[in-house]
Amino acid sequence: MDNDQIINDLKEIITPYTDHKEALETLTENTDLLIDLKINSANLVDIILDIEEKFGIEIDNDSMTKMINVKETIAVIKEKLAANAG
Amino acid sequence: MLGNDIVDLDKANTESDWKRKGYLDKLFSSQEQQEILNSSNPERMVWLFWSIKEAAYKIVNRETQERFYSPRKFNVTSIGNNGIVTFEGKTFYTKSEIKDNLIHTIAAAKAESLNHIQTSFLTNTSDYLSHFNSKSEHYTLEKDANGIPNLVDKINGESHFASISHHGRYLAVVYGVSL
What would the mean pLDDT of B30-42 be, rounded to a whole number? Predict the structure, then answer.
């Protein structure tokens, strides 16, 4: 799965949790979930649970620590997908 | 050093489904979960525990200049007026109040500091800084280049720690001029 595919899925997952639709439309690897999309930190859990369901992965607490921007989120998803495949 | 966190209960309860499978596991230790589920108002307890963790995170974030998302690393061992939360061997002291559908928690590195923290509640609007400053006689609330708030004495220019939190309809500014 490449980054563009993951970004498309992420946009879909994040949609209900942000009012900043413009920043969501133009979402890139450099987008910060809390600063740019103004996602509430209590809703970050919802996003992480949605990611687990969508990609069929399990995200441990250590991985969750870094998931405040798109770049780290993609890295975690790829790492967990690779672990599943292996 | 101080921190604070505010939760608009109406907003929290509409936007987050804490009963969702896995939700509590990501945020709370099994002991915290047990306390939440055994309480007479679990929903309110979820957000009380959460606000304590967030208020302590604000202190750690300010000290380390690092942003991270590790709610489970913050262990709440006591709640209410004499709250205690630990993080990587450090202890923080907290005090929470629940009123008008909001929960507000202040946190400090020393228990006695809590008595010196003042709180101003404002409406959560984009021009809250000018709103706060128009009402404040002695101090100006400012944010530095990193977005860190400070309360500056209008007469002697002295700078004091401040912490801002907002959620839904509510915004709180806390500061300790004698800290």
Answer: 97
User: Which residues lie below 8 Å from residue A35, measured CB to CB, with a gap of 6+?
Assistant: none
Q: Which residues of A touch B67 (CB under 8 A)?
A: 34, 68
What percent of chain A clears pLDDT 70, i.e. is strictly above it? 100
Task: Indicate yes or no: CB of B20 within 8 angstroms of CB of A52.
Answer: no
Interface test with chain A among B9, B20, B26, by most A beta carbons within 10 Å: B26
CA–CA gap between residue A23 and residue A44 (Å, rounded): 17
Give the Cβ contact number of residue A46 at 10 Å: 22
Q: A–B: how many Cβ contacts below 8 A?
A: 46
Domain boundaries in chain B?
Answer: 2-175
Q: Do B69 and A66 touch (CB under 8 A)?
A: yes
Q: Above 0.90 for ipTM, yes or no?
A: yes
Q: Do A45 and B16 touch (CB under 8 A)?
A: yes
d(CA A29, CA A69): 8
Report the length, in residues, of chain A.
86
Pick the CATH number of B2-175 from 3.90.470.20, 1.10.3210.10, 3.10.180.10, 3.75.10.20: 3.90.470.20
All domains in chain A, ordered by first residue: 3-85 (1.10.1200.10)
pLDDT per position as a tens digit, B131-148: 999 999 999 999 988 788
Share of chain A above pLDDT 90, in %: 92
pLDDT score for B179:
57
